[in-house]
From TrEMBL:
Annotated region described as Disordered, given as residue ranges: 86-116
HAMAP family per UniProt: Ribosomal_bS6
Alphabetized UniProt keyword annotations: Ribonucleoprotein, Ribosomal protein, RNA-binding, rRNA-binding
A GO molecular-function annotation: small ribosomal subunit rRNA binding
InterPro entries in the record: Ribosomal_bS6, Ribosomal_bS6_sf, Ribosomal_S6_plastid/chlpt, Transl_elong_EF1B/ribsomal_bS6
Record organism: Candidatus Geothrix skivensis
Name of protein: Small ribosomal subunit protein bS6
């Protein structure tokens, strides 16, 4: 499979998520990686993470399509609890605040150097 074919497959699954009423939060393409162990005589594969809000019907449909698609050799569906989602949002908020403070510190130092 080429990079272009992988991108096309990802777009196809993103389309399925959208048309079935799911909310795609993030698509993280990790690219071509060595598999931890050989699967169906493949030693490398393209890894992609879909993070979404979806009901059980959509998840079942995605899993059915993953199973039936020749290019998908392995998949894993994981349900995130509300606490895990909140923890992720809290971590992102802390990182944004730290970045904002760091940028403010740089601006303060620049102003002091100009006045100084």
């Amino acid at each position: 499979m080429t990079d272009e074919q992988s991108d096309e497959l990802v777009k196809q699954f993103e389309g399925i998520i959208a048309e079935q009423g799911g909310e795609l939060l993030k698509t993280d393409k990790w690219g071509r990686k060595k598999l931890a162990y050989e699967i169906q005589k493949y030693s490398e594969g393209y890894y992609t993470l879909f993070e979404m809000n979806a009901g059980p019907t959509l998840i079942a449909e995605l899993e059915r399509r993953f199973r039936n698609h020749d290019s998908v050799i392995k998949y894993l569906s994981i349900r995130m609890d509300e606490a895990e989602k909140a923890a992720g949002r809290t971590k992102q908020r802390i990182e944004r605040e730290a970045k904002r403070k760091a940028q403010a510190g740089i601006k303060e130092r620049s102003a002091e150097e100009v006045m100084g």
